[in-house]
Write a structure and sequence with these properties.
With about 120 residues, the chain is an alpha+beta fold. The chain contains five helices and six strands; from the N terminus they run ββαββααββαα. Strands 1-2-3-4-6-5 form a six-stranded mixed beta sheet, with helices on both faces.
Length: about 120
Amino acid sequence: EMLAQAVDIQGVKVLAAMLQGADAKALRETLDKLKDKLKSAAIVLAAVEGGKVQLAAGVTADVLARPAARVKAGELVNFVALQVGGKGGGKPDLAMAGGSDAAALPAALATVAGWVGERL
């Protein structure tokens, strides 16, 4: 059902979604599965555990290889994390972050498609 939430921006599937009750490991595993299914994608997954926000971002290799694209998972996850009182980073294809403002998470996730669209 999460696949249906992805929006297409210039041929790239962009998905920002909450996973209820997930830990960091579950976020990474789900992210890998979604990247395989969506093929060309930029994804942010989030979970809230004990009032703390966990974030995982992933960008597929074909998107990273686009000459003009500036969509990297580390920058994307940090963009979202800053909005929820945290920070993060990682590699261009996979990054993790945390934050402390769970109430700000829905609005932060809503900004993902715009951020990706500006960089494609």
